[in-house]
């Protein structure tokens, strides 16, 4: 599976692979990711508890919560057609209930890098407005891990129905909408 990590303002493509868990080599970040991914998968009803949950290696070496979605999809990769998932990059930090935890920092750089690589990028719905700034990128937005899984399995209730919302708008439309927002007037305290 593919994802992106941020180096300053530049997004770098990273790949994710599973490996057997070894508690001696786990750092705090690995433990936290394992807990978030396992709990999110359980909340979505697609994971039965097992004694050993795999770790995930990212190449080049990458850390951060934004790689959680990529790790979850890599864990479930036997459920999906590998040719289909190779067209995607997955970015998002998962909460324990399977929803996305927060916005992803640097999503505009990641969307630009995905566009340059010819990938469809899946991001949290909270980042949708930022992603819309990148014209011509193929962006899918989701609010939960379950929506991503349903989309990859070809179910109607997946993120495919929401893809149009993540389609970038023309710059002129964005500027027009920004100008049309009325700001509240503050009374300066002077009498009329």
Can you describe what's shown?
The protein has one domain (2-180): Ribosomal Protein S5, domain 2, CATH 3.30.230. It is an alpha/beta fold and 192 residues long. The protein has seven helices and six strands; from the N terminus they run ββαβααβαβαβαα. The protein has a three-stranded antiparallel β-sheet with strand order 1-2-3. A three-stranded parallel β-sheet has the order 4-5-6. It is globular, with a radius of gyration of 19 Å.
CATH class descriptor name: Alpha Beta
User: Based on CA inertia axes, which overall geometry fits?
Assistant: globular
| CATH architecture heading | 2-Layer Sandwich
What is the SS-derived class? alpha/beta
**N- and C-termini, Cα separation:** 65 Å
**Mean pLDDT over the residues:** 77
- Helical coverage, percent range: 25-40%
Strand content: 15-25%
Number of helical regions: 7
CATH topology: Ribosomal Protein S5, domain 2
Low-pLDDT segments, ≥5 res? 160-188
How many separate domains?
A: 1
> What is the radius of gyration?
19 Å
- Order of secondary-structure elements: EEHEHHEHEHEHH
Largest sheet: 3 strands, antiparallel
